[in-house]
Backbone:
DNA sequence: GAGCGGACGTTCCATTGTGACAAGTTAGGG
DNA sequence: CCCTAACTTGTCACAATGGAACGTCCGCTC
């Protein structure tokens, strides 16, 4: 009764195509590779791995050095992944608490709102810088960069630029009229 | 021991500032007003309402026509909201399954990938159109439009435009080289 | 005035997230 | 060489969330 894979489980299988990995490794890999548009927690990873081992999609190897428990793909897992990746991916969801604060902005003092907004704006500036750096180091490497990974990274860039643009065109009431721009 | 409000509960309190509403009304209002950047399900709304009634943040009025159970704000609820709205809002999270499909794009046929991408692109085009329409109707109304609501709507516009831009600059391997463009 | 469909609320179950904890491992100061 | 502090890796228990079915009530239509 193979239930269809959920995206998180599928991602783990995807990573395992590179070879056996432990839950710990997978958490780290996922965080850096898909962390910008997918979240998964440690407990979820171990849970999914256990469930998939149950279902025969992966097998646990021998315990290694620090009690490491490496999992590897089975043929069945490869098939399940292959099926999943061809499926229609679901719609995206965004959860943006700052926008809640803004939409209810009439209920707080403009100064406080502006302060909050400025803080987030700074955060996004940093994020954009980080993505840009990632992009150039990825392009600077010796071997030709992965087109697919690059495409998803580009999404992050477009997203952050859009957010920044949006911040900049916010009306004075929200943004605070003070010009602490530059840089 | 007043636990700090979660954003969902806080939003409900925010809406209740307009007057008594039922869970059903709140679901609808939330869907249209904050639906673009916050999700809340029916069960969650009723759950939060019950919990907040427990905590004295809202009170349920008499059952109305179709078993309607209108909730209204208490002073305590107003205070709790007021405190919440001044707090630092948490970071945003995005969950975008399409990007998972793309990052593992090497594992499926380019045609299939292009097909999937094209579908999502169309969806986003529609969404952008819808937002643009919302914006102009909001601006066209008699009374001056709400600055705060407009700002959050603008976020949606910026976001959708960014996504569309991103789609357009995707490399041919992913996007499919076929030119089925033009609106 | 019977019955259909939408409004409204409630409940249950699966999934996800949070956080603490335990045991093994390494590194470096004494 | 020994000991402790810091880290790795896995596990567990619990809280929060989401999805979906269900039951009832009521306004409408025929």
Residues:
């Amino acid at each position: 009764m193979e239930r269809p894979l959920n995206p998180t489980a599928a991602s783990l299988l995807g990573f395992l195509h590179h070879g056996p990995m432990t839950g710990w490794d997978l958490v780290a890999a996922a965080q850096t590779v898909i962390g910008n548009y997918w979240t998964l927690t440690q407990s979820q990873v171990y849970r999914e791995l256990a469930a998939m081992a149950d279902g025969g999609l992966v097998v646990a190897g021998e315990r290694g050095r620090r009690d490491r428990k490496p999992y590897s793909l089975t043929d069945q897992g490869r098939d399940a992944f292959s099926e999943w990746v061809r499926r229609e991916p679901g719609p995206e969801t965004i959860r943006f608490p700052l926008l809640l604060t803004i939409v209810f902005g009439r209920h707080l003092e403009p100064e406080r709102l502006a302060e909050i907004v400025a803080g987030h704006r700074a955060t996004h500036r940093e994020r954009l810088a980080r993505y840009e750096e990632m992009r150039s180091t990825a392009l600077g490497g010796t071997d030709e960069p992965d087109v697919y990974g690059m495409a998803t990274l580009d999404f992050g860039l477009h997203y952050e630029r859009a957010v920044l643009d949006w911040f900049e065109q916010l009306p004075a009431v929200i943004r605070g009229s003070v010009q602490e721009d530059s840089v």
About this structure: The longest strand of chain A covers residues 58-60. Chain A touches chain B through 60 residues (CB under 8 Å).
